[in-house]
Fold:
Amino acid sequence: MSNRTTCPYCGVGCGVSATTDSQRVIAVSGDSEHPANRGRLCVKGSALHETTGPEERLLAPRVDGREYGWNIALDTLATRLEAIIHRHGPESVAMYLSGQLLTEDYYVANKLMKGFIGSAHVDTNSRLCMSSTVVGYKRAFGGDLQPCSYEDIDQAELMVLVGSNAAWNHPILYQRMVAAKAANPDRRVVLIDPRRTATADLADLHLALKPGSDALIFNAILAALAQRGALDEAFINAHTEGFDAALESAQATAGDLAEVARQADVPLADLEQLVDWFCTTERALTFFSQGVNQSSSGSDKVNSIINCHLATGRLGRPGMGPFSLTGQPNAMGGREVGGLANQLAAHMDFSQPEFIDRVGRFWQAPNMAQQEGYKAVQLFEAIERGEIKALWIMATNPLVSLPDTNRVRRALEKCELVIVSECMAHTDTLELADIVLPASGWSEKNGTVTNSERRISRQRGLVPPPGEAKHDWWIICELAKRMGYREAFDYTSPADIFREHARLSGFENNRSRGFDISALAELSDEGYDALKPIQWPVNEQAPEGTPRLFADGHFFTPSGRARLLPVTPQAPKQQPDSEYPLLVNSGRIRDQWHTMTRTGRAARLLQHHAEPFIEIHPTDAERFGVEHLQLAELHNDLGHYRGRIRISDQQRPGEVFIPMHWTRQFTQQGCSGSLFAPVVDPFSGQPESKQGRAALRPLQMRWEARLLVRKPLAIEGHWWTRVPLSHCTSYRLADSTPVANWRDWCEALTGTPSLWLEDLSNGRYRAAGISNQRLEWILLVEPNQELPDLDWLDEQFSREIDLDTRRQLLAAKAPGDQATGAMICSCFQVREPAILAAIAEGADSAQALGEQLKCGTNCGSCLPELKELIKVHAITDKSA
Ligand code: SF4
Structure:
C-alpha cells in the first residue's frame, strides 16, 4: 500500500510521505508529487510522527464510566437513542461533527441523521470556521463554489490578504506567496488585518484597520472601480445581476475615501494606494480567512469582496479571484456531503422541496428531514432549553471552541445523553460524556479530504488503530444497523461510501450543481486506493478535474448569472465599554492546532509558545499596570482568561490578542472561548470570535516555579500550565499566596520525599526527589526569566543520576551552561540566544542565519521572526 497520505491539520491539505513500524508513524516528509505542497511541510506537519502511537489514546468504549466491548456499547447507544426518539421525537437528537472527519465519515453521519432518524440537527465545527464563506459563495455563485486554485498564486500580480495570517495558519501556501514575490518583486502584496502579524513581513502595504471595517474597505474599492472607469462592463452585462444595487450601496456607504479612511482608522494614503493597485491590476487574488468569517456580519464581508471581483470580471482566469483559505483539513469535504445543519448532501439544501425529494429518493430514506436544523450556537442553546435530549459529538471539543464555554458546559451537564467519539483519552468534552467511543486517528483512518482549492486527496490508513479504536464510518454504520437500517448502511469499506457519494453528486444534476464528481462513481477499490489528488468538478466534461471554476461565465444561480449584493457595513456587536474597555481578538499561533489534543503531544511544538498569553500594546500595558511576562487576567460578565503578558507594538492600542488553543488539559483558566458572547452572523450562524470585550488586571503572584515530574499530576489551587516532554511532564506554577513550607508542599504534591533541598533565599528555592538513582521530580522556584533549559532537564529523567548531575540539577544548569530562551525555529530547534549571537557576529539576513544555524530553512514559518530579530538588533547596534 502507498505510504502517501494527507496532513490532518490545516486547509492547505499537504501531501505527506510516511514511514511506519507496526504501531506508529516513525518519520514523515513532504510528498514531492502532491500539487498542494510539492514536497514541503510546515513545522506542524513535520512533527506529525511525534503525535502518533498508542500513548494517551482512548482504547476502549465506555458507558457511564465503565469499559465495555463494542457490542454492548453500541447496543446501549441504540437502545437509549431509540427511547429518546420514542419519547420526544426525532428532533430531540443531534450530532455535532468536525472538519477533522473524513468525507466518508461525514457522509454516513449526515445520511443517518437527515435521511433515517429524520433530524437535521447535524452541525459541525466548520460553522465556527468558514460558514460565512459558504453563504457568500452561495449567494454570489449559486453554490458553495471556491473558484480559484493554488497555481493562481504563481500568476497573480496583486495578492490581497484579508483577515488572514497565512504565514502561521497556512504556512506552505504563504511560502508559495513568498516564492512568487521573490521571483517577481513587482508583484504587490497587501495585508488587511488589525494586527501586524507575521504575514505583514511579505506585504508591501499593511492596512491595520479598525476591527470589523473590512466591508467598508471593499465597498470603497467597488465605488472607486466605478469612478475610475475600471469596471468590466462586458462581463457585468453578460454574466452578472444585481450590479446597480451593489454599486449604489457601495457609493452610499463608502464613496468618500477620506471618510472611509477615517472610519476604518487607516492612513488615507495607504487606502488610496490599495484602491489604486486594485483598480489597475488585472490579475488580483483576494485571500480571506477567519478574520473575515468570524464576524457578526461575515457573510456580507465575503460578498463585499466577491462584488469587487465580479465587477471587474476577475475570476475564472489565471491569477485572479476571491479565494477563501479554509481552516480545517476537511472543511470542504464536510460541506460537500452536507455536514452543516442547513445543507443536504451533494451541495443541495432545504431551500427547495425538490432537493429534499431528490436526496430522499436517492437514499431511499424513510424519514427525510424537511427543514434545516439548528446551527452550532443555536444547537447548544436548544440543549440548554432541554429541547435536544441526546447529542453525539465526533472529533471535536465544543467545550473549548464554542463561544461562552461556561454556558456550553452547563448545557452539556443538563443533556440527558452525551455521546463522544474521540481518539484521545483526555479532552475537556470527554469529561461530560455518558457514552465514550474510541475512534481511529490520523495514520489509521482511511478515506478522503478536500482542501481549500477543491482538491480531493486520500488520507490513508497506514497503521492499525490501537486497542479497540474503530473508524468513525464503521461506528455510525453499526449503530444504523442496530436501529433497523442495515440495508442502507451495509458498506464494506470507505471506497463503497465514496462511490455512493460520487453517484449522488451526479444524480439528476444536469449541470445544475457545481459539485459533481460523478466521473469517480465507478472507481474500483484499487482505483480508490490509488486515487491521485484531483480538483472537482470531475465529471464527463472534466474527467481530469477542474483547476478553476467559472471560466465559461456560467454560474449556478437560476439565471446562470453571478449575483452582486448590496452590502451595508455593520459594526461588530460586541463593543468595549467603560466596564470592559479592551477589545479581545482570538486566533491561532504558529505551532499549535485547534485544542492541542494532537499538537500538544509534541514537545517541540510547545516551545514556541508554551503557555497562554495576552498580547497587548505598550500604551495599554502602562494603562493597566501590567509588565512584560507578568501573569494577568482578562475578565468579563461571561468568564475569565489567564495568560502571560506579551507587550507588542504589533497590536493596535485598545485591543489585545489571545490564542484559541489552551484547554483545561493544559492550563488553568486559559480557554479563550469563555470570553466571547454567542453573537452570530444572521445568515451563516457563525460566531463573532474575533471581537470580544474584557477588562484586564495584573495577577500579583508571590512566586513562580517550574516543576518537572515523571507522571502528570492533578494540580489544584495554583495557576498552572503543562507541557508534556519526552520523559516527564513540565509544569509552570504560580500563586499569590506564599508557601509556608516548601518541603511539605513538594512532598504532598508529588507523593515522594524530597532528597535534596536548597534554599537560595530571595524567594528562590530548589528541591528534587530521587528514587533508585532515578529522578522523580524537580522543583525550581525562580523568577520566570531565569528558569533553565527544559531539554536538558527532561533528559535527566531518562537515566541514572550521578553526583555531578545532582550538583548540576540543584544549580539548575546544564553542563556547558547551554543556552535557554525562546524557541524561534521549531524545525531545527534553534533558540533566540543562538540567533542573537549569530547576529552579533555579523549575520545580517535570514539567509545568513539559515546558512549558519539552519533556522528558517525547512518550512520557513519562522522567517518573519528571524527578520524581526535582525531588524531590532541591527537598530540596537547602530544606536549603541
Ligand atoms: S501547511 Fe502545515 S499544517 Fe497545513 S496542511 Fe501543510 S503541513 Fe499540514
Summary: Residues 7, 9-10, 12-14, 37, 41-42, 44-45, 170-172 surround iron/sulfur cluster (CB under 6 Å). Residues 70-88 form the longest helix (19 residues). The radius of gyration is 27 Å.
